[in-house]
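Practice set, problem 2.
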Amino acid sequence: MKPFLLLATRAEDRPADEEYGLFLRYTGLAPDDLVRIRLEAGPMPAIDLDAISGVFVGGGPFNASDPIAKKSAVQQRVEAEFAELLDRVVARDFPFLGACYGIGTVGAHLGATIDGTYREPISIVPVTLTDAGMDDPLLAGMPRTFEAFVGHKEAISALPPAAMLLASSPDCPVQMFRVGANVYATQFHPELDVDGITTRIHAYADHGYFAVGDLQPTLEAVRRAPVSHPSRILRRFVERYAR
């Protein structure tokens, strides 16, 4: 099998390594079949799309909507690299699944409106599939509404015509969309479980995802309901696109 890629941007080793472990667990892939590239650590290498099965993008602290003056040199490099990669991915309709930061990369590439209007605190939210989502092959077998982990300071407030809306939540209208037949992005985190999001809550406690003093309420918020369905999307992506 040609490997899948995981493009990652987390600078902190523990959440970065745990993210990779979660993608391995829920895709069912072995390490040799899911090659991680940590973009915060160095330039994106040349990626031959003919040599891989598909691309995953994890979450991270970068915000596409930040003013250019607030973006580090690393973030600006990563954004430029994603722009070049997505030119090829979208043109070829190549299998791609971006989670959280991944939705910002694809959204920015399409010219979507991305801002803080629909930010969501770290929590569990009900995500509901649209009619198009119910008919989408990647989401086959998913319930119409399912619980998912979220936590983001920006979101897409207006999708361009090229994108098909697949899922929404009460406080965030764009939770998942598709471009073409094979390019997907989610605002929620399909890779997370309770242990994984707990690690991130502690790792990013001073990054503005929740107010000072709200650590314990935030930890409690991610335990209020079981979350089991989103990870099925990762396994389904592998089953559909492995070649």
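Problem 2, part (b): a different protein.
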Amino acid sequence: MKNTIGLYGLGVMGASLAKNMLNKGERVALYNYTDDLTTQFMEQFPHEHADPYTDLSSFVQSLEKPRKIFLMVTAGDVTTSVIDSLFPLLDEGDIIMDGGNANFIDSNERYQTLREHGIHFIGVGVSGGEEGALHGPSLMPSGDKAAYAKVSPILEKIAAQVNGEPCCTYIGKEGAGHYVKMVHNGIEYADMQLITETYQFLRYVVHLSPDEIANIFEAWNETELNSYLLKITTHILRHKDEETGKPIVDIIMDRAGQKGTGKWTSMNALDLGIPSTTISEAVFVRFLSALKKERMIAKDVLQGPIKEEIQQKETAIQHAKEALLFGRVIVYTQGFMQYKVASETYGWDLQLDHIAKVFRGGCIIQSDLLHPIRDAYRKNPALTNLLLDDYFKCLANDHQASMRAFLMDGIASGVSLPTYSAAMAFYDGYRAERSGAELIQAQRDYFGAHTYERVDREGVFHTKW
């Protein structure tokens, strides 16, 4: 029998996806550029439907037509090289799926190039890490809809399932799937930073231990704040370093890395004119964290406030909880604003309720808030902003006072809360009748004769200052 799908790339994510496919009944041809990972996979997971190859041509020929090949290799030049090596071995109608963290612009180009030769390219955003890949990730495929129909039985089978629905759906044309994954990662950056700033507040303003904060986060995770990131943060805060017995968070260097998707999201937001301020701030905070040596000097020469003890700790904790919910709403609001404008700009026809549905399970940003987000866009596909939906409008109105109190306590204590501050500024800016931009326009007209509009009549005007 021919294999139903080929998986190229047996690193951590590729191996987990291969196991997932095999466990779901697929016959999987396996190939890796180096033979060692193929051998290792078969030793660790000897499955009757796993068919390993060390020769690329034999790997391709083992697949039923139209051939379906799923790539799990490093994004960028490596992916290009792999596609180039596969191309001469494929026939018209065959399908290449790229599950790497590719830039959507690269996916657009690959889609168009392969299409000219009759080969289908499907960019598949994959979220969930190693565990998600093994047990059911969130999948965001895009490309030819007819080609997706041929691979959807496999993809929807291996995806996470929520209430009997797969966390996988056709996203749109070209590289739309990788775009959706990119902004997913931007939302992930911001949500991680919000949780981190909440931890900073509870630890250094309210003066709670990591174990005490873990208990609070665990309780919060039983409420509307339920999310994968809050859950794993609870486990992290309870974990002790084996050598010292100290909380592991006190041993880990406070210097955050990144792989670029958050930066790509911010750059794209600037290109589209979208105020994705919380995502951009989360990226900048990682840059700031990298300045460890400078920060160690600055702490001894730059003054902060005289810290006062929080008198009402339970009130402060409650404010922190409501601030986290408020902040998360703003992060999702900005992310989905970016999806909406990108869809219109690139002609992708993104279905925002489908995107929210895909994120409900398997992915890193899965949270209970995604259910009302899906409902909001199902109810009104033309919704311009989540804050204008009845549910989210009430939620924001109910919690904005706690957000302000949380920020005032944190800033007064000298704790940096950049992503929360950006969320609050966005909210107040969005609801402002007068934004202050009138002064900016006057300044631009003064030094550059850039003109301005008036509030009392139509037209474009210039003042002789």
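Answer key, part (b): The chain has a mean pLDDT of 96. Residues 438-465 form a domain with the Single alpha-helices involved in coiled-coils or other helix-helix interfaces fold (CATH 1.20.5.320).
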